[in-house]
Amino acid sequence: MYSDPILIVDDDPSVRSVLSSLLSEKGCETLAAGKAEEALARMEGVTLSVAMVDINLPGMNGIRLLEEIKRRSPSTEVIIMTSHASLDTAVEAIRAIRKEAYDYVQKPFQDLDTAWRTVRRALEKRALSRKNRELLKNLEERNRELTAAVKRQNSLVNAGRAMSGIVAISELLDFFIGVVSEELDVERASLMLMDERSGEMWIAASRGLNEEMAREIRLKVGQGIAGWVAREGKPILVKDVETDPRIQRALNSTSAGSFISAPIVLSIPILIREKVLGVINVTNRRSGVSFDEEDLAFLYSLAGQAAVAIERARQFEDLQAAYLSIQDAQKHLVDAERLKAFGQLAAGVAHDFNNLLTGILGQAELLRAKLGDPAQDPAVLRKRTELIETLALQGAAAVRRMQDFTRIRKDAPTEAVDMNVVVRNAVEVTQGKWKDECEAKGVSVTVRRELGEIPLTSGNASELTQVVSNLIFNAVEAMGGGGEITITTWSDGKDIRLSVADNGVGMSPEVQQRVFEPFFTTKESGQGLGMSIVYGIVARHRGRIEVRSVEGKGSTVELGLPVTAPVSGDADHRGKELMHTGPASVLVVDDSDLNRDLFGNYVTSMGHQVHLAASGREGLAIFEREAIDLVITDLSMPGISGWQVAEKVKERNPNIPVLLVSGWAIQQDEPRIRESGVDRVLQKPCSMAKFQKTVQEALGHAGGGGTRPGVAAL
User: How far is Cα 421 from Cα 679, in angstroms, rounded to an integer?
Assistant: First the structure.
C-alpha cells in the first residue's frame, strides 16, 4: 500500500476512470481532476506522490500545470500523458521531461501494464529520493556528532599527555598507600574509592589488612568514620582515642565494627573540584605518638596527588573508549564518503555511456537502413561499422576507468596514435551533440578542423578520443546561443599540439583555477568529472594541458603530447589475416550463450576445431574425453568458476595453456593468476583481432607436452 495519493488530471472521464481503477488495484490512493484549476484545488493540504497530467487540458495546459505542481511540491513526480495524434505534442512532452517531468506515456493506452510500470518507477524514484534526503540528514547529524567528539578527544588527549607516566591505577594507588604507611609509620592504612552508583565505598589499596577481608568490605556513605568523611568531604583527626566520642560511635557501628578492630584516627577525603572520589584512612602509629596538624597537612598533600592520579586514570580510560568510538565513526564516515564519490564517478561514466550508446544506436540504424540499397557504397558501410567498433571500444575504456577507481593501473598506453584520426573520430562521434541536438533547439554550432601534418604519438586512441569528445561537449555547452568550435593540430617538433577553441561564455579566473578539480562544476546538473578525467588521461600519456579563457569571449583548451616513433608490433591488427600452421582443438567454456558462440566463431574462423561448454563442469567433462590443445574459459560461472577450471586443467596436464576471459578487473591479482595456473588474461570486451592474436600466442607458446604434436609451433 502506497501512503501518498496519486493525482490524475485528464479532461477525458474514461481515462480518469481507467487509471483510477488500475492504480486502486495496485494499492494506490487516487485523486482525479478534469482541469488544471481543479487539480490545484485538490492538492491543497495533500502530499502527492505522483501526478499524471494530460498535456492538452482546457484552460491551463499540462505544461503550465507541471510547473505549478513542481513549484508547490518539488518531491512530487510528474508523468505527462500525450496522444499519438500530434508530433508537436510529442515534442512538447519530451521538452517537458527535459524540464521537470519524470516521464511520459502515450494515449490511448495499448497496454495498461506499461502505464503502471511507469507509475511504479516514478514511485520508486520518489521513495529513493526521500531515502537519500534522510541519509544526507543522518550524515550531517553524524558529522556534527563527530565534530563534537573530536573536540572532546582533543581535550582528553591534552589530559593524557599530562599523565603519560601512569601505567595502571592499581599500581598507583598501592604506591600511594605504601608512602602513607611508611611516612606515618602506621599499623594499618587503606585507600577507599567511591562507587557512585551503589553509594558504597570499597578498598582499592591497603596495608596491614587481610586481603580477603579487604576485598569483601563495603561501607555505606555516612556510616562510620570513613563514611562520615566521604559524606561531608571533611577530614577527621583524632588526637585522643579514649576520649573522642567519634571513635566510640564508630566502634558501636555494626557496619564498621568488623573492619575497625583498631579505630581510625586520621581520615582524609580524596577531593577533586569539590567532588569526593574516595577516602584515605590510617590507624595509630606503631610508636604510639598521636597525629597532629602537620601529619594532616602531609596526608592532605598525598590525597591531592591521589585525586589527580585517579582522575587522570579515569580520563585515560574514557579517552581510550572515546578514541575507539571516534575511530569507528571516522571509518563509517570515510566509507560513506567513498561510496558517495564512487556514486558520483559512476554517474559520470553513465553520462559517457549514454553518449556512446546514442552513437552506436544511431550508426546501427543508419547501417540497417542502407543494407537493402544495392547502390550503397561498401566503403560507406565499412566506415559506419568501424565507427561502431570505435564507440564500443570507448565504452570498454570507460569501464576500465571505473575499475581504476578501486585499483592501481599498471598498464601504460603504448600504441601508435595519429591525433588527426582521433580528432576526426571525436567530431563524428559527437555529431549528435553539436549538430543534431543543437539543430533541434534551433541553435547552429559548427565545427571547423584545421589539421596540420603531425607525427604519431604513443598512447591509447580510445582514451584520447574521449579527451577530445569531452572538450567538444564542454565547448557546445558553453555556447548556448550557438557558435563555432575550432580544433587545430600542429607540431613544434618536440610535442604534438592540439587545441579546442570556442566563442562561448568563457570562464572567470577563479573557475579556470579549479576547472580540473574532481567534482567541481558550474553546471546545475553536472557531476564535475569530465575535465578531471581529461586531465588524468592526458597525464597518463605524459602530456600537459592548459586553459586560456576570457569571460564573454570564449575559451581555448590546449594539449601537448610527446612525439614518439611508432612502436613495433603495436599497429592496429584489424583486417589483417592471422596465419596458422595447423589446426588445433580449442575448448571454449562460458555460461553466456552470446559470448560462447561469438568466441567459438572467432576460433573457427582461425581454422581450428572448437568444443563449446556452457559450464565449468561440462567443460571439464569435455576436457577429460577429448584431446584439447587450448582452454578458453570465462571467470564468473555458476558452480565451478574459471579459476577452478584452470586449476583442474593444470592438474591433468600442466602443458595445456589456459586463457581466462573476464569483464572483471583481475589483471592486478597476479598471485591468484599464478596460483590457478592461468597463462593469459583477456579482458572483455575485446576485438576479434585481439582475441585471435591472444589465442595464436597462447598456442604458439604452449609447453611441449600438448596433446597434439606440432601445436606449440603455431
Answer: 35
